[in-house]
Amino acid sequence: MTTRYRVEYALKTHRRDQLIEWIKGLLAVPFVLHSQPTVIYQEHSEGLKRVAADTHQRYAEIMRDVENLINDHSKSHVARRRQHPLRLPLITPQFYITNEMTRLYLEDAFNYQDEQRFISRRRFVAPSFNDIRLILNSAQLLGLVRSSEVDLVTFDGDVTLYDDGACLTPANPVIPRILRLLEQGRKVGIVTAAGYEEAPKYYGRLYGLLDAVHDSKKLTPSQKEGIIVMGGESNFLFRFDQESESRLAYVSRKEWLLEEMRAWHDDDIKQLLDIAEDSLRACASNLGLPAAVLRKDRAVGVYPVNGVRIDRELLEETVLVVQNTVERSAVGSRLPFCAFNGGNDVFVDIGDKSWGVRVCQEYFGGIDPSKTLHIGDQFLSAGANDFKARLASTTAWIASPAETVELLDELEAAINK
Ligand code: IMP
Ligand code: MG
């Protein structure tokens, strides 16, 4: 039976970010009380400037209070085990903050984004989801550079580095930014769900970047080795190889598997994928998906035949059905997996990006989560695959490849400051 609770849960908890929604609600109050949309001002008038300054101050105060509350929450993390009541979960019981790795400088981030986006000058459009998502990103970058360092940046592929299903071509403006990270001695991981076992397939997707690293005269050989590709979320690792035509070399699992991953037995992997495949086939048939099933060694998915678009609702339904089905199985409680909506396909992968990011950290000698930034586009709590990276690193939530470029510029500016 579909209860009201389940519908609410699926619609609200999975489709919305509770922290962003909560902050949006807090900012809506001064927006309503101070932005005075019905007062007729000349757009250049002193009156309008005064209203904007007043609104800015109210927004900034709220962001400072939220910052203090989150800080308090993080500090009480240890106290939680001693049964101290926590203010944040009591005030906002529906969300939890996974990022206890660095401080979030929300007030400063708001001041920065307000200059970029004129949030407090707006009288008709309230602070939006995107405003707050970008403020949180800025706050995270400030936290990284002020209270820690950035030693490793991991990138999702589709939508983060290039458009969905496209390739990283030589003209992509992200390339000089990534080269710069490597020149500064930072490490870079591409942590993508795209799961191939052969290096040439990744070269086909990433050739613009890999050729640029290969051809670079500025990068030393050891800086070039600072880029790796982790495919299939956490299943196939490739290191940079200057001599190889595909610029990449496969790294065998025994060289990088984390201790816990050694318990992922082949028969469990097969059993989990069998359950997921049955469930995907049932969805394809019940929902009339114009899709074929693709079974791989470490993943199973449905993808559209002849490039037709599958309705978002059907993709989401499929993700939630298969996720529920696998979660309820015995093997699903032993083995980590990730079911997600890839935009026009649904995949179930063994492992998830938290493991992918951890492997990158270990590969580079044990980089701390507080010195790692994962940049991705999929951060809703269900049906999204970058979400799990929050367990292993700080994160930034972008909505397009252009935003990734802006974020890297913002990071560079924050580091230089
Ligand atoms: P990401 O955004 O870089 O994580 O890539 C996600 C996309 O990779 C999915 O939407 C799929 O279209 C594609 N893909 C190709 N192979 C796989 C696989 O084995 N597992 C999951 N996704 C895959
Ligand atoms: Mg993506």
From TrEMBL:
Enzyme Commission number(s) of this protein:
3.1.3.-
One of the entry's Gene Ontology molecular-function terms is:
ATP binding
Pfam families in the cross-refs: ISN1
Top-rank taxon of the source lineage equals Eukaryota
Which GO biological process entries does UniProt record here? inosine salvage; nicotinamide riboside biosynthetic process; nicotinic acid riboside biosynthetic process; nucleotide metabolic process
UniProtKB keywords: ATP-binding, Hydrolase, Magnesium, Metal-binding, Nucleotide metabolism, Nucleotide-binding
Reported cofactor(s): Mg(2+)
Name the InterPro entries on file: HAD-like_sf, ISN1
Provide the family line.
Answer: Belongs to the ISN1 family.
Subunit and partners:
Homotetramer.
What is the recorded name of this protein? IMP-specific 5'-nucleotidase 1
Q: What is the lineage of its organism?
A: Eukaryota, Fungi, Dikarya, Ascomycota, Pezizomycotina
